[in-house]
Amino acid sequence: MTVLLVEDNPTNALVLRRLVLKTCDDDVDVVDNGTDALAQVHRRFYRLLVVDNMLKGAMSGLQLIQAVRMIDRFATLPILMVTSDQDMALRQEADGLGVHTVLYKPIDTFAFKEAARACLVANPAERQVSHASARSD
């Protein structure tokens, strides 16, 4: 399965991509803006979204998440938000949109891994895939 990483800073994208690869052992698609992220979401099924709040272009991470949540098949998709903005209003809005975890930059490796694993376990579709694999073993 695949993880979509939406991060406009190339250095941060590289670091986060490596963390996703180590944590989830999945393919990672990386885009730097909300418009491209929405296009990707319409093309593929993702197991996890990792979204920065400040993105290139007109769409913020929160606006992207709101748009993704309007797509039925992604209503419960696990989402991790990464941001340097520690404003409580942002966190409350993210919570209201069903963001599973908000992590603050610089990203702590252990916290990221724990949050990503928790998101994947919480995802009903992920549990179904896990149960199907266990039965076929």
Can you describe what's shown?
With 137 residues, this protein is an alpha/beta fold. It has a single domain, classed as Response regulator (Rossmann fold). It contains six helices and five strands. A five-stranded parallel beta sheet has the order 2-1-3-4-5, sandwiched between helices. The protein starts with a strand and ends with a helix. Mean pLDDT is 88; it is low at 126-137.
Blueprint of the fold:
Blueprint: E1 2-6, H1 10-24, E2 27-31, H2 34-43, E3 48-52, H3 61-69, E4 79-83, H4 88-96, E5 101-104, H5 109-122, H6 124-136
Parallel strand pairs: 1-2, 1-3, 3-4, 4-5
Helix pairs in contact: 1-5, 2-3
Helix percentage range:
40-55%
Largest sheet: 5 strands, parallel
What do we call the CATH topology? Rossmann fold
CATH class: Alpha Beta
Q: What structural category do the secondary elements indicate? A: alpha/beta
Termini separation comes to 18 Å
Count every helix, treating DSSP H or I runs of 4 or more residues as helices. Answer: 6
Strand order of the largest sheet: 2-1-3-4-5
Overall tally of domains: 1
Poorly predicted spans: 126-137
Shape: globular
- C-alpha-based Rg, rounded: 14 Å
Average pLDDT confidence is 88
